[in-house]
């Protein structure tokens, strides 16, 4: 798939389940090709609750519930999952968010970056 000496990939997603839905297969392929793959989730996703479930579960999940679901989805795959746990629905493109993302990029120093396209 990719030919890099540095076999590190950083997947940056806004919410839990974005990577599972959008690029799980690509991430597994990178793992197969001996890449160290790290998934960084920016928001906590506590408001990612369906209208149907709101009747019984309320308007929001417990703050780490969706992170736990992503951790379970990637368990045993070799993907390292981390979260900035920023409040869902309150993300702003500002120096705090940019600094947090820069910190991840510096720490991982990836040759492959996968993220959303808006």
Count of beta strands: 4
Number of helices in the DSSP assignment: 5
What topology, given as strand order, has the largest sheet?
Answer: 3-2-1-4
In the predicted model, the low-confidence regions spanning at least 5 consecutive residues are none
Give the overall form. globular
Question: How does this model look, in words?
Answer:
It is built from five helices and four strands, in the order βααβααβαβ. By secondary structure, the chain is of the alpha/beta class. Strands 3-2-1-4 form a four-stranded parallel beta sheet, with helices on both faces. The longest helix has 14 residues, at 95-108. The two termini are 24 Å apart. The model has no long low-confidence stretch (mean pLDDT 88).
Write the layout of secondary structure elements.
Blueprint: E1 8-13, H1 18-22, H2 24-32, E2 36-43, H3 51-57, H4 65-74, E3 80-86, H5 95-108, E4 112-115
Parallel strand pairs: 1-2, 1-4, 2-3
């Amino acid at each position: 798939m990719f030919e890099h000496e540095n076999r590190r990939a950083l997947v940056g997603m806004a919410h839990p389940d974005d990577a599972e839905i959008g690029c799980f297969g690509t991430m597994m392929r990178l793992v197969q090709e001996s890449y160290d793959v790290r998934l960084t989730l920016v928001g906590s996703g506590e408001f990612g609750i369906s209208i149907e479930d709101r009747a019984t579960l309320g308007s929001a999940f417990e703050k780490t519930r969706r992170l736990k679901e992503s951790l379970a989805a990637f368990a045993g795959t070799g993907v390292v999952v981390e979260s900035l746990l920023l409040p869902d629905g309150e993300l702003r493109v500002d120096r705090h968010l940019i600094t947090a993302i820069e910190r991840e990029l510096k720490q991982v120093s990836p040759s492959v970056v996968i993220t959303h396209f808006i």
